[in-house]
Fold this protein.
Amino acid sequence: MNKPSAASKTPASGIDPGLPVHVAVIMDGNGRWARQRGMPRVAGHRKGADAVRTLIRACAKRNIAYLTLFAFSSENWKRPKPEVQRLMELFVSALDKDVKELHSNNVRFRVIGDRSGLDEKIVQKIGNGELLTKDNDGLQLNVAINYGGKWDLLQACRSIAGRVSEGTLAASSIQIDDIESGLSTAGMPEPDLFIRTGGEHRISNFLMWQLAYTELYFTDVLWPDFDEAELELALTSFSGRQRRFGRTGEQLEAN
Ligand code: IPE
Ligand code: IPE
Ligand code: MG
């Protein structure tokens, strides 16, 4: 698989961006999908889990190297307790059932987010899944659970502050790389394509630093309805973008 090295963290520039190396997705709209059908919100989450499986398969099939999925934000604890409970149960059942299948498909599974806020049983299962799949070099799958972009940056700041206070790093020498190496996505290329379903046009505290130069794609389709054809639409939109990274269009065309 065409897996880029950590050195190629900034996406390659070019007129035709082709296929994204890293796709990041805010899977939004489960609740509305269910309500439209007179069903409880949790029915939308169950259906949304099926859409996750479809997307993982579709990305692996296309040799997309990295997929990062926002499953539960650091703000989602504010939801009604039974809904949070049901989401956690869905994670447990996915960790029990789906991780083995991911492994047999050569997918490397990782969770990004604050594990200290998660139930011990879930943390254990996450660790088992990560260990089982750690040598897989197919699709690199990150699932963001109890994740917040601000939390991620805070972790990086803490790690830098630790190095400064122990005297191994001078404050005046702090580089962008020092921040990136403290993020939960350290060593991975930044997302090339961001997809948000469900019609909202916001980042909702997802990968804030990492999305600095990502192409953004928003669709009104609700997450449970996001299928392979919808992925294809997002990829087609991406392939038509001109990624200039500060340069002019003429400069790119001259190359
Ligand atoms: C996204 O769907 C799933 C999670 C946040 C866990 P929502 O549950 O936010 O669905 P809507 O936005 O209420 O329709
Ligand atoms: C973002 O969706 C988080 C996930 C999809 C996990 P939300 O539905 O929680 O976002 P807001 O609150 O509408 O911004
Ligand atoms: Mg929502």
User: Anything to note?
Assistant: Helices lie at 30-36, 41-61, 81-104, 120-133, 149-165, 176-180, 228-239, 249-254. Residues 28, 198 surround magnesium ion (ligand 3) (CB under 6 Å). The longest strand covers residues 66-73.
